[in-house]
Design a protein that fits this description.
This protein is α/β, with parallel strands linked by helices and 316 residues long. The protein has 2 domains: 57 residues, no CATH class; 226 residues, 3-Layer(aba) Sandwich (Rossmann fold). The protein is 27% helix and 16% strand. The chain is built from 10 helices and 8 strands. It has an 8-stranded mixed sheet with strand order 1-8-7-2-3-5-4-6, with helices on both faces. The longest helix is centred in the first third of the chain and has 16 residues. It is globular, with a radius of gyration of 22 Å. The two termini are 27 Å apart. It is found in: Nucleus.
Length: 316
């Protein structure tokens, strides 16, 4: 649930009589696009419940707490694999062929512009790296998403991955570390500031019957940067969306970009983070398999979470 400040546009001269009709009250307009043009204040800065979007909804608050605790309980230790961009494909091929390693959740990309996502997607046998059923999250700027859409609509790709959802992340203003750069050096009045994510699915997953694999309707498709977001290449919200949606514990994040020390790539419990600049390099495939065997490949079914989780309407 997103709440915005009320922006009143009162104009007493707009009250005119037409065939004896007179408006009973002023019209309420929340035109924040027009407000941005005149003031330079971004529309997303007027959302009042960014810090806690479930405030006033005790059932959802309890659901979020339960999910967070469950994900933390069944998570591997933070793991990083520091590898140069040109070595990523050979390294991943080794994991597939020699180590027989697969992941249920794979996220590709971060919130930086200098990414080599397209070459990676065309070279890597992702269908062998992602389990079936499995989930693929691909993040890119608004300028790159059209290029990715053409690839995802390709007949060969469509046979392996089914595009399911589009997620959006919006930075709060131009001072944000996640504010995307412009395509050219010219200043423009209106800029595309959002980041897009295509979520793709391998295999067959059904909302109505596969509650042990996915938890639908926990998060919204839109995330706005909060004041507590740390400077880095990946906001925690990107990880939380994947963690809350899939119950799988084998998660891989591939960042095909040099981010530098000013934009650190942090590791996260429950994830293997592959990046040239990841802050930790401690991943061992055989040890990882042992860790997964100990915690299980999926978080266990929890009756309370299932009862709290919003359900899609049943078609009649």
């Amino acid at each position: 649930m997103i709440k915005v400040e009320q922006n009143y546009n009162r104009d007493s001269d707009s009250k005119i009589k037409v065939n004896g009709f007179r408006p009973a009250k002023d019209v309420l307009l929340n035109d924040y696009s027009n407000h941005y043009i005149h003031s330079g204040s971004n529309p997303q800065s007027h959302v009042t419940n960014i810090e806690n979007p479930v405030v006033g909804y005790p059932k959802l608050q309890k659901l979020f707490e339960k999910k967070e605790n469950q994900v933390a309980e069944y998570a591997t230790r933070p793991l990083g694999c520091k590898v140069s961009i040109d070595k990523m494909v050979p390294t991943l091929n080794k994991w597939i062929q020699k180590d027989k390693l697969t992941f249920d959740v794979i996220m590709i990309g971060c919130l930086t512009d200098n990414q080599f996502i397209y070459p990676l997607l065309t070279q890597l046998p992702l269908d062998k790296l992602v389990s079936k059923p499995g989930f693929l999250f691909i993040w890119a700027s608004a300028h790159k998403i059209n290029e990715l859409s053409k690839l995802l609509n390709n007949e060969v790709w469509a046979k392996k991955f089914r595009r399911s959802e589009e997620l959006v992340f919006v930075p709060i203003d131009k001072n944000s570390p996640y504010y995307p750069g412009l395509v050219d050096d010219d200043d423009t009045l209106v800029e595309k500031v959002q980041w897009h994510c295509w979520m793709c699915i391998t295999g067959t997953v059904r909302r109505s019957t596969d509650g042990h694999l996915i938890h639908c309707n926990v998060d919204t498709d839109l995330n706005i940067e909060t004041s507590e977001t740390q400077n880095g290449a990946v906001p925690p919200d990107l990880y939380k969306v994947a963690e809350n949606f899939s119950t799988a514990t084998k998660r891989l994040h591939i960042i095909p970009a040099r981010t530098g020390w000013e934009t650190p790539v942090r590791v996260r419990p429950g994830w293997v983070v592959m990046s040239p600049d990841v802050m930790l390099d401690n991943f061992d495939p055989s040890k990882y398999k042992t860790d997964i065997d100990e915690i299980g490949s999926h978080v266990p079914f929890n009756e309370e979470i299932e009862s709290l989780r919003p359900k899609s309407p049943v078609q009649r």
